[in-house]
Amino acid sequence: MKYKKISIVTPTLNSMRTLEMYLDAVDKQVYPHKYIELIFVDGGSTDGTLEKITQYRKESDFKISVFENPLRTGEAGKSVGVKKARGEIICLLDSDNIIPDTRWMERMIKPFQDEKIVASEPIAYTYRKKDNVINRYCALIGMGDPLCMFTGNYDRYCRITNKWTEVDREEMDCGDYLSVCFHVNMIPTIGANGFFIRRKFLIKKLGGGEYLFDIDILWEILLENPQLRIAKVKTGIIHLYCDNFQSFYRKQIRRISDYYYFNYIKQRKYPWNKVKKGKIVMFCLSCITVIPLLLQAIIGFRRKQDLRAWLFHIAACWITLWAYGWGTIKSVFRKKIVDRNHWKQ
Questions:
Q1: Which residues are CB-neighbours of 306 under 8 A, at least 6 positions away?
Q2: DSSP-assigned beta bridge partners for residue 125
Q3: 306 phi and psi, to 5 degrees?
Q4: What's this model's pTM, rounded to 2 decimal places?
Q5: Successive 10-residue mean pLDDT values, the chain, 345 residues
Q6: What backbone phi and psi angles, to 5 degrees, belong to 211?
Q7: Neighbour tally for 242: CB within 10 Å
Q8: Among candidate residues 22, 11, 5, the one with its CA nearest the CA of residue 79
């Protein structure tokens, strides 16, 4: 195997909840460490995150760099990190992403032997019985936002639909991965949680932008280069999404509020307006009547028996409906970025 230089870009902001597990999993990769650089971009952590990274840098054989992120958001941190990166391949790995096995990096890089492959991403989230109910649920459903399942715009294997996406595409099975070509007018929510992409395409499209919205940039790259393909590698990534209901609600509020704010200042490019409104209405009706959510949970339970996780499906949909509804109403009167002053991972 010809080794490529990889730059792992990780935004941090009070990330101690998951940082040690993140570092331990990266350290165990059999991919030669001399071909990997770690770039952390911190938004002003006060919980010991920077001290932990400094300690790890002294003990590790990786090349490690730390930069400041004055704009504080994950998207701003990714932009800073990508501009500093020197690897041929960029890996966007969040601090709550835990690599599941020692050969994961090798498998994620292998598809780039095909010059038509511009990016690679795990096809699933890794389910672990030891994780909390919310993290198990998100792994089972393949997303942190159940609305995406109703719209069909998701990018990880979902045990309710038995699919990894419902977006129109052409795909070839290449053994360890699927080689996928999307119709240029729509792609699923690809671009985070263990996402690899050729640096030359990312840098060209990012330019001097202060924010890197992964799906927006990938969509623009594929618009200009429709012959390029995405590899969906037949592996997973552990995503420690959140610990409790309050944190889940907070993340849903942040997602919708940030979207309206950045769309208002014309920073977003992906055509979310093409998502069929009828599917959003169906999501709302399903939450109100509850029965469709119960049926979905039963289908999921038959495929993977975890009663508590599947019962959370109903709560997750209701929390999302409330958060998005309230966030939409607030956006009419006030468009501002969510305050990160007390944020923690």
A1: 129, 136, 140
A2: 237
A3: -150, 85
A4: 0.94
A5: 92 95 97 97 95 95 95 93 96 97 97 97 98 98 96 96 96 97 86 96 88 91 93 98 93 90 88 86 96 98 97 97 92 68 55
A6: -130, 140
A7: 21
A8: 11
